[in-house]
Fold:
Amino acid sequence: MTLLGRGRTLVVDAVIATVVFGLALAVISSGHFAGSGTPRPLDALGVVLAALASLPLAARRLAPFSVFLVVGAATATLYGLDYPLGPPAGSVVAMYTLAERRDTVRVSGRVLGVAVLAVFAALAGVHFVHHDFPAAELVLGAIVWGGAWVAGERTRLRRERIAALEDRAAKAEREAERERRLAAVEERARIARELHDSAGHAINVILVQAGAARLLQERDPARSRAALETLEDVARDTLDEIDALVRALREEEDSPGATAPLPGIDALETLTARHRATGLDVTTRVRGTRPPLARSVDLAAYRIVQEALTNAARHGTGPADVEVAYGSHGLELTITNPATPNGSTASGGHGLVGMRERATLLGGSLDAGQRNGSFRVHARLPCTREDG
Structure:
């Protein structure tokens, strides 16, 4: 409860206590509800007892058990001294509050029950002293107190239900926020990986092309210009791809579903053409009919071929062969090239680790290693349908 709400509650309780006190004084002064005997007039003791039977209600939410005991004892004393108090309004309010705030009372249920019975017995006892057998008063008191207790219990249960619903809603909101943050972290990691793969491939191609242009600028100006044109195309395409990735990263919070337009297996010819321009002899073969692919599978297939060809250009000693096979169980990629005698390609590094991670996350597999003088990368990816 906020400080403002707590202040309003205290003001309301103070008003209730004042009204009950005023009613008690008015009833005692009027002499009504005196019964058959001679009523005791209002005096200083009556005012003090009336105050004790009503004014503590201002603190009924802060100390409900103590307030109930004080108000009940003062009410019983008023009846015992034959003050014409009338219906015990203060005790009824205190009983309601005790039931409504029972979860905050720091006494056992047994002690609480004994205290309630003791106060009720005290009120019944003083009635018995002034009347032969107040059966009607006992029944009426039991009904009124029982009704006050039931009303307080219902209020307490309703408050607990509302608190439980609010707590559940807050937990759901925190869980949704946690999931959103995890999704954002995963998306940023994915974009960072795409940036690494795209930039790494482009830098390798640019290095080869720049070296070729430098060596051929005097002997073969035409091939030197072609190398520079390829270098320019690779740099432009890579910048476009990086720009799209960074834009997706920046706009992620505003539009979490936004994804950058990334290349897929359909861009295989463009990829192999770039490597051919660097001097790597690349042969491609495609078997089967291309089914609808999920965007993640399409991108993973492209990145695996891209990384394998980059390794072939850096570490290989001859032509590279790329085979793409579409089957009923999935997509298979096989990239082979002659390996160096010391098998440096087989040592792998972050490139091979990244390729294997991509395949595994999609439910596929990737094997890479040297065999019969060639380095072979073989990946199997599931042919899942287009994802939204």
Notes: Strands lie at 282-287, 320-326, 331-338, 365-371, 374-381. The longest strand covers residues 331-338.
